[in-house]
Amino acid sequence: MIAFLTIIYTAVVVVVFRVLKVKPTPWPVALTITSGVLMLGTIVVLWTIAAPISTKAVVSRYVVPIVPYVKGQVVSIPALPNTPLHKGDVLYKVDPTPYQYAVDQAEAQLRSVKSNIVQLQAGIQVAEASVNAAQAGVTADKAAAQVAEAINKANPQAIAKLKLVEAQQQYEASQAKLAQARGNESQSRAALATAQDSVGVAEAQLASARFNLEQCTVRAPADGFITDWQIREGTFVTAMPFAAAGTFIDTTQTSIVAAFPAQMLVHVEPNQPVELAFKSRPGVLYRGEVDTVIQASGEGQFTTGGKLPSAAQVGSPGVLAVKIRLDPGVSVDELEMGSAGSVAIYTDWGKSLAMISKVTIRMKKWLYYLPIPGT
């Protein structure tokens, strides 16, 4: 459309100065130039709002730093760089020997605790039997004391009184023995409860040791591929975020994001049609829709810290990101991560101006065959 208007403008200029013989004095020339600039400028402004186009589109994926949960020496690396992997595939293995020792020790400790519980349960049975025997003794001695008391009342002789004292002392001794037996039973039950509680502790320690042993085998967190290996067999790895063993590219979710000046997104809304062209696929035109306009920008982020943000550093170029999804049946996974390209969005406002972007994006897809910087 701009080319068409430029041709019309040129034709008008030719008619005015050649056909109508208008003398090219400063005023007619200035008026002609001004009208041309205003006409084309207005068209360009309306065009960029009605069908914004950006050359800053990129294919992006999530990146996961591979950091081990346990430390140790790498013994094998089955995963090859840049080779497709499925979730759960082995990336590399850490020497499991010390962690196997920890599992063996925890299992032995759990067995010891359970064996102690069996012994304590047997001890409780013995204590219960002692209590029953002591209870029977108390009952018998109580009866003997009552008989001696009855005899003493009937014949208060010295021999009867002696028998009464002996029976009472025996009864008191039986009561003390019963109290002691009950105390032993309570002590045994308390020891059993403590031992039963220690079973949970021992099982938790065993579970922790087994978990650490499992973590010696580092697996793929999702479908994707590993790149930038920083380890070899024999490398000692540690569980530190800044000491990643490699970088994992998650291919389960691929996004296309394009950057636009904020003023060009006035009429952009989700589900509006888009067309894309990528440098890695020259001559191919992709179609899709606007997923969302990301209402956030890194320039507006304040990082929590002990230092106040500097007012001199506050500012933004006013660029927002638009997330795009391709039409069904078109696989975005075939596009390489980091592939750059151009995207045109066709809004519901000023649809007649969309033809300019349609022509431009189609020119872009063919120009990508040429190694032209900045295209």
Automatic annotation (TrEMBL):
Q: Which InterPro entries match?
A: MdtA-like_BSH, MFP
What Pfam families is this protein classified in? BSH_RND
Any idea which UniProt keywords this protein has? Membrane, Transmembrane, Transmembrane helix
Q: Which residues cross the membrane?
A: 28-51
Q: Which residues form the Multidrug resistance protein MdtA-like barrel-sandwich hybrid domain?
A: 64-239
Entries under PANTHER family matching the protein: INNER MEMBRANE PROTEIN YIAV-RELATED (PTHR30386:SF18), MEMBRANE FUSION SUBUNIT OF EMRAB-TOLC MULTIDRUG EFFLUX PUMP (PTHR30386)
User: Which named protein is this?
Assistant: Inner membrane protein YibH
Organism this protein belongs to: Pirellulimonas nuda
What gene is this protein a product of?
A: yibH
